[in-house]
Amino acid sequence: MTRRSLLGLFSSDLAVDLGTANTLVFASGKGIVVDEPSIVAYNKKTGQVEGVGKDAKDMLGRTPGHMVAIQPLRDGVIADFDAAEEMLHTFLQKAHKRKRLVHPRIVIGVPSETTDVEKRAVLDAAYRAKASEVHLVDQAMVAAIGAGLPVTEATGNMVVDIGGGTTDIAVVSLSGIVYSRSVRAAGNLMDAQIIEHMRRKHDLVIGERTAEAIKMEVGSAYPADQPLSMEVKGRHAIAGIPKAVTVVDSEIRQALSGCLSTIIQAIRVALECTPPELSADISERGIVLTGGGSLIKNLDKRIRTETNLPVSLAEDPLTSVVMGTAKMLEDFRLLRKISLYGPN
Questions:
Q1: Which residues touch 65 (CB under 8 Å, ≥6 apart)?
Q2: Pairwise CA distance, residues 271 & 133, whole Å
Protein backbone atom coordinates (compact mmCIF):
# COMPACT_ATOMS: atom_id res chain seq x y z
CA MET A 1 0.00 0.00 0.00
CA THR A 2 1.39 3.41 -0.96
CA ARG A 3 1.75 6.23 1.53
CA ARG A 4 -0.83 8.27 -0.40
CA SER A 5 -3.47 5.53 -0.23
CA LEU A 6 -2.61 4.88 3.43
CA LEU A 7 -3.16 8.54 4.29
CA GLY A 8 -6.47 8.34 2.46
CA LEU A 9 -7.40 5.34 4.57
CA PHE A 10 -6.75 7.30 7.77
CA SER A 11 -8.06 10.66 6.49
CA SER A 12 -10.64 11.11 9.25
CA ASP A 13 -8.72 9.25 11.89
CA LEU A 14 -7.33 10.36 15.20
CA ALA A 15 -4.39 9.88 17.55
CA VAL A 16 -5.21 10.37 21.23
CA ASP A 17 -3.00 10.99 24.25
CA LEU A 18 -5.54 10.08 26.92
CA GLY A 19 -3.79 11.64 29.89
CA THR A 20 -4.69 11.85 33.56
CA ALA A 21 -4.20 15.62 33.53
CA ASN A 22 -4.73 16.56 29.86
CA THR A 23 -6.05 14.90 26.73
CA LEU A 24 -4.65 15.76 23.31
CA VAL A 25 -6.17 14.71 19.99
CA PHE A 26 -4.34 14.79 16.66
CA ALA A 27 -6.35 14.65 13.42
CA SER A 28 -4.77 13.54 10.16
CA GLY A 29 -4.01 16.51 7.95
CA LYS A 30 -4.98 19.02 10.67
CA GLY A 31 -2.52 18.56 13.53
CA ILE A 32 -3.47 18.84 17.21
CA VAL A 33 -7.15 19.81 17.28
CA VAL A 34 -7.91 19.21 20.98
CA ASP A 35 -5.69 20.07 23.95
CA GLU A 36 -7.84 20.21 27.06
CA PRO A 37 -7.82 19.14 30.73
CA SER A 38 -9.16 15.63 31.39
CA ILE A 39 -12.03 16.86 33.58
CA VAL A 40 -15.82 16.42 33.48
CA ALA A 41 -18.28 18.56 35.48
CA TYR A 42 -21.59 16.96 36.54
CA ASN A 43 -24.81 18.37 37.97
CA LYS A 44 -25.72 15.91 40.73
CA LYS A 45 -29.35 17.11 40.82
CA THR A 46 -30.05 16.46 37.15
CA GLY A 47 -27.31 13.95 36.31
CA GLN A 48 -26.40 16.13 33.33
CA VAL A 49 -22.87 16.96 32.18
CA GLU A 50 -22.32 20.70 32.62
CA GLY A 51 -18.84 20.96 31.14
CA VAL A 52 -15.93 18.97 29.72
CA GLY A 53 -12.28 19.93 29.42
CA LYS A 54 -11.46 23.63 29.82
CA ASP A 55 -15.04 24.47 30.77
CA ALA A 56 -14.96 21.90 33.57
CA LYS A 57 -11.52 22.94 34.83
CA ASP A 58 -12.76 26.48 35.32
CA MET A 59 -15.30 24.99 37.74
CA LEU A 60 -12.71 22.94 39.70
CA GLY A 61 -12.79 23.92 43.36
CA ARG A 62 -15.41 26.59 42.67
CA THR A 63 -18.55 24.57 42.12
CA PRO A 64 -21.74 24.82 44.24
CA GLY A 65 -22.77 21.80 46.30
CA HIS A 66 -24.81 20.14 43.54
CA MET A 67 -21.98 20.43 41.01
CA VAL A 68 -18.97 18.14 40.99
CA ALA A 69 -15.88 18.34 38.78
CA ILE A 70 -14.09 14.98 38.45
CA GLN A 71 -11.10 13.51 36.64
CA PRO A 72 -12.21 10.33 34.81
CA LEU A 73 -8.65 9.00 34.84
CA ARG A 74 -6.53 8.36 37.92
CA ASP A 75 -2.95 7.14 37.82
CA GLY A 76 -3.17 6.79 34.06
CA VAL A 77 -6.20 4.48 34.00
CA ILE A 78 -9.97 4.96 33.81
CA ALA A 79 -11.46 5.46 37.28
CA ASP A 80 -14.93 6.58 36.15
CA PHE A 81 -16.07 4.75 33.02
CA ASP A 82 -19.15 6.87 32.26
CA ALA A 83 -17.26 10.13 32.67
CA ALA A 84 -14.38 8.86 30.50
CA GLU A 85 -16.82 7.87 27.76
CA GLU A 86 -18.52 11.28 27.92
CA MET A 87 -15.17 13.05 27.80
CA LEU A 88 -13.89 10.99 24.86
CA HIS A 89 -17.15 11.48 22.97
CA THR A 90 -17.00 15.26 23.48
CA PHE A 91 -13.37 15.51 22.41
CA LEU A 92 -13.92 13.32 19.34
CA GLN A 93 -16.86 15.51 18.33
CA LYS A 94 -14.70 18.62 18.77
CA ALA A 95 -11.97 17.02 16.67
CA HIS A 96 -14.46 16.49 13.82
CA LYS A 97 -16.35 19.74 14.41
CA ARG A 98 -19.52 18.02 15.65
CA LYS A 99 -19.96 15.83 12.56
CA ARG A 100 -22.17 13.01 13.80
CA LEU A 101 -21.58 10.52 10.97
CA VAL A 102 -17.81 10.33 11.35
CA HIS A 103 -16.58 7.06 12.89
CA PRO A 104 -12.79 7.38 12.97
CA ARG A 105 -10.09 4.85 13.57
CA ILE A 106 -8.31 5.84 16.77
CA VAL A 107 -4.84 5.12 18.15
CA ILE A 108 -4.56 5.73 21.92
CA GLY A 109 -1.43 5.77 24.10
CA VAL A 110 -1.72 3.98 27.48
CA PRO A 111 0.77 3.49 30.37
CA SER A 112 3.20 0.57 30.15
CA GLU A 113 1.76 -1.47 33.01
CA THR A 114 -1.93 -1.02 32.18
CA THR A 115 -3.74 -4.29 32.94
CA ASP A 116 -5.87 -6.15 30.40
CA VAL A 117 -9.00 -5.08 32.29
CA GLU A 118 -7.90 -1.43 32.13
CA LYS A 119 -7.06 -1.73 28.43
CA ARG A 120 -10.49 -3.18 27.78
CA ALA A 121 -12.06 -0.23 29.63
CA VAL A 122 -10.21 2.22 27.35
CA LEU A 123 -11.23 0.25 24.26
CA ASP A 124 -14.87 0.10 25.33
CA ALA A 125 -14.96 3.82 26.11
CA ALA A 126 -13.53 4.62 22.66
CA TYR A 127 -15.93 2.28 20.83
CA ARG A 128 -18.92 3.66 22.73
CA ALA A 129 -17.71 7.12 21.74
CA LYS A 130 -18.36 6.02 18.10
CA ALA A 131 -14.88 4.91 17.02
CA SER A 132 -14.87 2.38 14.18
CA GLU A 133 -11.53 0.79 15.12
CA VAL A 134 -9.24 1.30 18.13
CA HIS A 135 -5.55 0.47 18.65
CA LEU A 136 -3.72 0.88 21.96
CA VAL A 137 0.00 1.64 22.02
CA ASP A 138 2.55 1.96 24.82
CA GLN A 139 2.87 5.59 25.94
CA ALA A 140 6.60 5.41 26.51
CA MET A 141 7.15 3.87 23.05
CA VAL A 142 5.19 6.55 21.24
CA ALA A 143 6.79 9.24 23.44
CA ALA A 144 10.16 8.04 22.15
CA ILE A 145 8.87 8.21 18.57
CA GLY A 146 7.39 11.67 19.17
CA ALA A 147 10.67 12.86 20.67
CA GLY A 148 12.44 11.90 17.45
CA LEU A 149 14.43 8.95 18.78
CA PRO A 150 15.56 6.37 16.16
CA VAL A 151 13.41 3.56 17.57
CA THR A 152 13.61 1.41 14.44
CA GLU A 153 17.42 1.19 14.56
CA ALA A 154 19.48 -1.45 16.38
CA THR A 155 20.51 0.99 19.10
CA GLY A 156 19.32 1.52 22.65
CA ASN A 157 17.17 4.56 23.40
CA MET A 158 15.81 5.44 26.85
CA VAL A 159 12.78 7.68 27.31
CA VAL A 160 11.21 8.84 30.58
CA ASP A 161 7.66 10.17 30.09
CA ILE A 162 6.44 12.00 33.23
CA GLY A 163 2.73 12.62 32.87
CA GLY A 164 -0.03 13.50 35.33
CA GLY A 165 -0.77 10.06 36.77
CA THR A 166 2.22 7.91 35.80
CA THR A 167 5.87 8.08 34.84
CA ASP A 168 6.61 5.65 32.02
CA ILE A 169 10.18 4.53 31.45
CA ALA A 170 11.23 2.50 28.43
CA VAL A 171 14.31 1.24 26.67
CA VAL A 172 13.55 0.88 22.97
CA SER A 173 15.44 -0.81 20.12
CA LEU A 174 14.49 -2.21 16.69
CA SER A 175 10.85 -1.00 16.97
CA GLY A 176 10.41 -2.99 20.17
CA ILE A 177 10.40 -2.39 23.90
CA VAL A 178 13.38 -4.05 25.58
CA TYR A 179 12.31 -2.86 29.03
CA SER A 180 9.37 -0.83 30.27
CA ARG A 181 8.00 0.17 33.62
CA SER A 182 5.27 2.48 34.82
CA VAL A 183 5.33 4.03 38.30
CA ARG A 184 2.44 5.98 39.79
CA ALA A 185 4.61 8.93 40.75
CA ALA A 186 4.11 11.93 38.48
CA GLY A 187 2.53 15.39 38.29
CA ASN A 188 -0.59 14.64 40.35
CA LEU A 189 1.44 13.14 43.19
CA MET A 190 3.67 16.23 43.15
CA ASP A 191 0.56 18.42 43.52
CA ALA A 192 -0.70 16.25 46.40
CA GLN A 193 2.65 16.49 48.18
CA ILE A 194 2.61 20.28 47.85
CA ILE A 195 -0.96 20.42 49.26
CA GLU A 196 0.12 18.27 52.22
CA HIS A 197 3.24 20.40 52.79
CA MET A 198 1.25 23.64 52.82
CA ARG A 199 -1.22 22.23 55.34
CA ARG A 200 1.47 20.75 57.60
CA LYS A 201 4.00 23.61 57.59
CA HIS A 202 1.83 26.69 57.04
CA ASP A 203 -1.64 25.55 58.26
CA LEU A 204 -2.83 26.58 54.81
CA VAL A 205 -5.47 24.69 52.84
CA ILE A 206 -5.06 25.05 49.08
CA GLY A 207 -6.62 23.37 46.03
CA GLU A 208 -5.14 21.44 43.13
CA ARG A 209 -4.96 24.46 40.84
CA THR A 210 -2.94 26.44 43.40
CA ALA A 211 -0.65 23.46 44.02
CA GLU A 212 0.01 23.16 40.29
CA ALA A 213 0.82 26.88 40.10
CA ILE A 214 3.31 26.53 42.99
CA LYS A 215 4.89 23.50 41.29
CA MET A 216 5.40 25.33 38.01
CA GLU A 217 6.55 28.66 39.47
CA VAL A 218 8.88 27.67 42.32
CA GLY A 219 9.06 23.85 42.13
CA SER A 220 12.49 22.42 41.32
CA ALA A 221 14.43 19.18 41.51
CA TYR A 222 17.87 20.73 42.06
CA PRO A 223 18.97 24.05 43.61
CA ALA A 224 18.82 26.98 41.20
CA ASP A 225 21.37 29.77 40.84
CA GLN A 226 18.87 32.27 42.22
CA PRO A 227 16.35 31.52 45.02
CA LEU A 228 12.69 31.67 44.00
CA SER A 229 9.62 32.64 46.02
CA MET A 230 5.91 33.31 45.54
CA GLU A 231 2.91 34.40 47.57
CA VAL A 232 0.29 31.69 48.07
CA LYS A 233 -3.30 32.37 49.12
CA GLY A 234 -5.61 29.83 50.70
CA ARG A 235 -7.67 29.12 53.81
CA HIS A 236 -6.26 28.86 57.33
CA ALA A 237 -6.66 25.22 58.37
CA ILE A 238 -7.70 26.06 61.95
CA ALA A 239 -9.23 29.54 61.88
CA GLY A 240 -10.98 28.95 58.56
CA ILE A 241 -10.25 32.47 57.30
CA PRO A 242 -8.36 33.52 54.14
CA LYS A 243 -4.60 33.55 54.62
CA ALA A 244 -1.54 34.34 52.47
CA VAL A 245 2.00 33.04 52.97
CA THR A 246 5.27 33.26 51.04
CA VAL A 247 6.91 30.00 49.99
CA VAL A 248 10.46 29.50 48.70
CA ASP A 249 11.90 27.00 46.24
CA SER A 250 13.91 25.07 48.86
CA GLU A 251 10.82 24.04 50.87
CA ILE A 252 8.87 23.04 47.75
CA ARG A 253 11.88 21.04 46.55
CA GLN A 254 11.81 19.20 49.88
CA ALA A 255 8.06 18.61 49.52
CA LEU A 256 8.62 17.06 46.07
CA SER A 257 11.58 14.94 47.16
CA GLY A 258 9.54 11.76 47.75
CA CYS A 259 7.98 11.72 44.29
CA LEU A 260 11.21 12.68 42.54
CA SER A 261 13.17 10.01 44.43
CA THR A 262 10.65 7.37 43.27
CA ILE A 263 11.09 8.44 39.64
CA ILE A 264 14.90 8.45 39.87
CA GLN A 265 14.93 5.04 41.57
CA ALA A 266 12.76 3.66 38.75
CA ILE A 267 15.26 5.05 36.22
CA ARG A 268 18.10 3.33 38.09
CA VAL A 269 16.23 0.02 38.02
CA ALA A 270 15.65 0.42 34.27
CA LEU A 271 19.37 1.02 33.72
CA GLU A 272 20.22 -2.08 35.77
CA CYS A 273 17.80 -4.20 33.72
CA THR A 274 19.08 -2.99 30.34
CA PRO A 275 21.25 -5.47 28.35
CA PRO A 276 24.95 -4.43 28.34
CA GLU A 277 25.04 -3.79 24.58
CA LEU A 278 22.20 -1.29 24.84
CA SER A 279 23.61 0.25 28.02
CA ALA A 280 26.60 1.40 26.00
CA ASP A 281 24.25 3.16 23.56
CA ILE A 282 22.38 4.86 26.39
CA SER A 283 25.63 6.03 28.03
CA GLU A 284 26.43 7.74 24.75
CA ARG A 285 22.96 8.96 23.70
CA GLY A 286 21.65 9.62 27.18
CA ILE A 287 18.10 9.80 28.54
CA VAL A 288 15.32 11.83 26.92
CA LEU A 289 12.61 13.35 29.14
CA THR A 290 9.06 13.96 27.90
CA GLY A 291 5.68 14.82 29.46
CA GLY A 292 4.50 17.80 31.47
CA GLY A 293 6.24 16.62 34.63
CA SER A 294 9.62 16.86 32.91
CA LEU A 295 9.22 20.66 32.93
CA ILE A 296 10.01 20.82 36.68
CA LYS A 297 13.00 23.14 36.93
CA ASN A 298 16.41 21.42 36.91
CA LEU A 299 14.96 17.90 36.78
CA ASP A 300 17.36 17.06 33.96
CA LYS A 301 20.26 18.31 36.09
CA ARG A 302 19.15 16.18 39.06
CA ILE A 303 18.90 13.01 36.96
CA ARG A 304 22.22 13.79 35.27
CA THR A 305 23.88 14.18 38.69
CA GLU A 306 22.46 10.91 40.04
CA THR A 307 23.03 8.71 36.97
CA ASN A 308 26.16 10.28 35.42
CA LEU A 309 24.41 10.09 32.04
CA PRO A 310 23.55 12.80 29.51
CA VAL A 311 19.93 13.95 30.00
CA SER A 312 17.93 16.11 27.61
CA LEU A 313 14.39 17.41 27.26
CA ALA A 314 12.35 16.55 24.19
CA GLU A 315 11.78 19.50 21.86
CA ASP A 316 8.13 19.73 22.94
CA PRO A 317 7.65 17.52 26.02
CA LEU A 318 3.90 18.18 26.28
CA THR A 319 3.09 16.82 22.80
CA SER A 320 5.62 13.98 22.43
CA VAL A 321 3.09 11.22 23.16
CA VAL A 322 0.35 12.51 20.86
CA MET A 323 2.82 13.28 18.05
CA GLY A 324 4.35 9.81 18.35
CA THR A 325 0.87 8.29 18.37
CA ALA A 326 0.00 10.38 15.31
CA LYS A 327 2.90 8.84 13.39
CA MET A 328 1.14 5.50 13.75
CA LEU A 329 -1.61 6.86 11.48
CA GLU A 330 1.01 7.13 8.72
CA ASP A 331 2.87 3.89 9.38
CA PHE A 332 0.44 0.99 9.67
CA ARG A 333 3.27 -1.55 9.55
CA LEU A 334 4.92 -0.02 12.62
CA LEU A 335 1.51 0.28 14.32
CA ARG A 336 0.95 -3.47 13.92
CA LYS A 337 4.37 -4.11 15.47
CA ILE A 338 3.85 -2.01 18.58
CA SER A 339 0.07 -2.28 19.06
CA LEU A 340 -0.77 -3.62 22.54
CA TYR A 341 -4.43 -4.16 21.84
CA GLY A 342 -6.49 -3.72 18.73
CA PRO A 343 -8.87 -5.31 16.23
CA ASN A 344 -8.26 -8.93 15.35
A1: none
A2: 36
- CA–CA dist 52, 40 (Å, integer): 5
Instruction: Give the whole-angstrom CA distance, residue 251 versus residue 229.
Output: 10
- Domain span(s) for CATH 3.30.420.40 in the chain: 3-141+320-341, 155-185+263-317
**Angle in degrees, 0-180, between the axes of helices 81-95 and 116-128, rounded to the nearest 10:** 50
CA distance 238 to 222: 33
Please give the CATH topology (third level) of the domain spanning 187-255: Actin; Chain A, domain 4 (3.90.640)
Q: Domain 155-185+263-317 carries which CATH code?
A: 3.30.420.40
Single-letter code of the amino acid located at 258: G
Instruction: State the CB neighbour count (10 A cutoff) for residue 315.
Output: 13
- Global pTM value: 0.85
For 209, the enclosing helix (H) or strand (E) is: helix 208-218
Cα gap 166→251, rounded to integer Å: 24
Per-residue pLDDT tens digits of the chain, which is 344 residues long:
444 444 444 457 899 998 888 999 999 888 999 999 999 998 888 888 889 999 888 876 676 777 888 889 887 788 888 888 889 888 988 887 766 656 788 999 888 778 888 888 888 888 887 888 899 998 889 999 999 999 889 899 999 999 999 999 999 999 888 999 989 999 999 999 999 999 999 999 999 889 999 999 999 999 988 999 999 999 999 999 999 999 999 999 999 999 999 999 999 999 999 999 899 999 999 999 999 999 999 999 999 999 999 999 999 999 999 999 999 888 888 888 888 776 65
Cα–Cα distances in angstroms (integers) from residue 254 to residues 160, 184, 193, 200, 210, in the given order: 22, 19, 10, 13, 18
Give the whole-angstrom CA distance, residue 245 versus residue 130: 49
